[in-house]
Amino acid sequence: MIEQLQNLPGVGPKTAQRLALHILKQPENQVQALAKAIVEAKKQVGLCSVCFHLSAESVCEICRNQNRDNQSICVVADSRDVIALEKTREYGGKYHVLGGVISPMDGISPEQLNINPLVKRVSQQSVKEVILAISPSVEGETTTLYVGRLLKPFTKVTRIAFGLPMGGDLEYADEVTLARALEGRRELDT
Ligand SMILES: [Zn+2]
């Protein structure tokens, strides 16, 4: 159990041990409930066929929401970023989750990310603005420029402003910083 827990992000050997001991002290039905919740979530949750955000349905709640602006798409690297941006309550459009960033060092090429479906989406429907909201890092920058160039022929492309620290993850930015970054977005120059 300790070995398995240690595979989780942000869990070192000490934390894994603490969690394992805590679980062992729990009543059995509670441990069953936890195990079941993990397995069920894994079984039921897949990716939205439109935006690639985590979803239990084939099309996610955000994509299905008629009150959200269809003509604005915010592009993020990961589902965690969608959750972080939703917390700000500043954004009323749709999203597109790339599933990572371009990283030759880690062997991640543009073809492995959900970039083609994004280009298709933007070229086939009327989109007024694409907001690139990818965490600032060397790979993030490469991805922003790459995706921006592909989308520019079809629509206005902006990027969120960086009061965000270089290398800082979107998900760790507090809501006010993130809301400001979104508000202060500017057109991407490629
Ligand atoms: Zn969706």
Task: Please characterize this protein's 3D structure.
This protein folds into 2 domains: 2-44, RecR Domain 1 (Helicase, Ruva Protein, domain 3), CATH 1.10.8.420; 60-187, 3-Layer(aba) Sandwich (Dna Topoisomerase Vi A Subunit, Chain: A, domain 2). It is built from 8 helices and 7 strands, in the order αααββαβαβαβαβαβ. It has helices at 2-6, 13-25, 28-44, 61-64, 79-88, 115-124, 138-151, 175-183; strands spanning 46-47, 54-55, 69-76, 93-97, 129-132, 156-159, 186-187. A 5-stranded mixed β-sheet has the order 4-3-5-6-7. Strands 1-2 form a two-stranded antiparallel ribbon. Helix 5 (79-88) crosses helix 8. The protein is globular, with a radius of gyration of 19 Å. Zinc ion binds next to helix 4.
Which terms summarize this structure?
alpha/beta; Dna Topoisomerase Vi A Subunit, Chain: A, domain 2; 7 strands; 43% helix; globular; binds zinc ion
Helix-strand blueprint:
Elements: H1 2-6, H2 13-25, H3 28-44, E1 46-47, E2 54-55, H4 61-64, E3 69-76, H5 79-88, E4 93-97, H6 115-124, E5 129-132, H7 138-151, E6 156-159, H8 175-183, E7 186-187
Parallel strand pairs: 3-4, 3-5, 5-6
Antiparallel strand pairs: 1-2, 6-7
Helix pairs in contact: 5-8
> Roughly what is the average pLDDT, rounded to an integer?
92
Number of domains: 2
Q: Give the topology string: H per helix, E per strand.
A: HHHEEHEHEHEHEHE
Number of beta-strand segments: 7
**What small ligands are held by the chains?**
zinc ion
| CATH class value of the largest domain | Alpha Beta
> Compute the gyration radius: what is it?
19 Å
Approximate shape: globular
Oligomer category:
single chain
N→C terminal distance: 49 Å
CATH fold-level name of the largest domain: Dna Topoisomerase Vi A Subunit, Chain: A, domain 2
What share of residues are in beta strands? 5-15%
Helix content: 40-55%
Structural class: alpha/beta
Poorly predicted regions: none
Query: Helical region count?
Result: 8
Instruction: Please tell me the CATH architecture of the largest domain by its name.
Output: 3-Layer(aba) Sandwich
